[in-house]
Amino acid sequence: MFVRVKSKPNGKKAVQIVESYRRADKVTQKIIRHIGQALTDREVDELKRLAQSIIDEMENEKQPALPLLDPIKKVVQKLINQKPTNDSVKIKNLREEQRIIVGIAEVFGKLYRDLNFSTLIEGSKKDTQWNSILETCVLARIANPVSKRRTASLLEEDYGIKIPLEKIYRMMDNLAERESSIKQHIAKTTRSLFKEEIDVLFFDVTTLYFESFKADDLRNFGFSKDCKFKETQVMLALVTTTNGLPITYKLFQGNTYEGNTLVETIEEFKAEYSINNVLLVADRAMFTEKNLSKMESLGVTYIVAAKLKTLPKDLKSEVLGAGYKPDVVKNELHWIGEFEHKKRRLIVSYSSKRAKKDAADRQRLIDRLMKKAKEKKIKIKDLIPNYGSKKFIKIENGDATIDDGKIEAAAQWDGLHGIITNSKEKSSVELLSRYRDLWQIEEAFRISKHDLKMRPIYHWSEPRIRAHILICFISLALAKQAVYRVGVQQDAMSFEQIRNELLHAQSSVVIDLSSKKKYIIPSHITVNQKKLYQVFGLKRSAVPYELP
Predict the structure, then answer these.
(1) Is 318 among the domain residues?
(2) DSSP for 69-126, written as a single string
(3) Residue at which a domain ends, from 365, 395, 411
(4) Which of 181, 184, 396, 464 is deepest in the core (most CB within 10 A)?
(5) What pLDDT shows up at residue 67?
(6) Residue 384 belongs to what domain range?
(7) What pLDDT digit, counting tens, does each position of 243-290 carry?
């Protein structure tokens, strides 16, 4: 198999996976998979990389798909294998026995096997069983993320699938022992999409809270990004590509200062994955001299958001002065200035759009403060802890009032944003553009925490905690791989849109009361469902099937 690029009359280029075979004395090419169409060379390159990755998956697959463990998967497999029925039945004799969501199992199950996730747990006599339970848990989290206990209950209540909760927990114990090898496998699948071209990585940190108030070596109390200050938590550091595809993660004790997570994660990352010459992008929480110096000693090129208001007085005066030049960053007009700070490049941009937002956010905070003070007839200073408005308040003789001078001083910074970097080659616009892509890792956190419900965590032992987060990480890898592949081959769709479409790809199991024969009647196929199936090399038929 190989990748073919074919020009079309409309000016687009079609990227396909084809295979050559001999028919009589003539060599013929057969199209195995249409990958997509592109207008630009960059789009062609992306499609070619994806096509080569798919070829690698096809050729290097360790073994055929594992035997399907549960009734839903058996029904799905029968749906794929059966031929349309020619039976004549009386409609009045038909009764629906069950309605099955097949889209998640078909599409994400196919992707799961394509990425060789079916053999993540190795080295045990019960490999097949543990891998099947793991796949069921991952697909269940993608479809309906709930606790493991609730997952086991729903599988039995809704589908008649009995997986004892204890078996799920034993699978998790086996999974936790393989945390390092599984993270390496996921990093490999992500890197295979880009070959040797991963040159930018994003880093960010979040917190995951527990339904627990007891601290230990991993769980602890700390600053919560979910505002759960009474619960224990762990800290999760995540590394992704510019597309938000996960590379790796590291867990820290819940009371770790997030600025201290960067160096340890990067040191471990460089040692395990042998990736050099990459540009690391991180937010302002990582802006410490310790972090910047350590990254430089490790040979890491970085872009980190700068805390402009903490800069030396003379440099702040320069930043607030003239010398800015207009340029375009991500299709928006910005005024850009470049300065030097401790032999590093400090790049500051001004955006009128950001300036309006900064002013509006500050005014909304002050208005809310004044309104609360007026309605509740309490002193302004009593509201300071609630709204973080202390910087806009002055206190005289025990009374607090709004300080117009402080508001005016804060307004000087409206619209300004800075980054610090040790990159010598790239232009200011390139570096600012790279930093603005940091939303991709924030989107990965949103999917993990909200769509896949990574938190709250209900487990107490460290192996189970690590296994839970690993299951969520595998689910995130599947979700982001799906989003990436759909975006490259079809119109872009979010994970939420993909999941919603596939949740509505259903089939009804009906029984003929007279003959006792059972049939599958697929639901209507939407345009988006058809596109999703095509992306993953699947076909979904609308023709009823008989179950043997």
Answers:
(1) no
(2) -SHHHHHHHHHHHPPBP-----GGGEEEEEEEE-HIIIIIHHHHHHTTGGGSS-SSTT
(3) 411
(4) 464
(5) 31
(6) 353-411
(7) 889 888 888 876 777 777 888 888 888 777 766 677 899 988 888 899
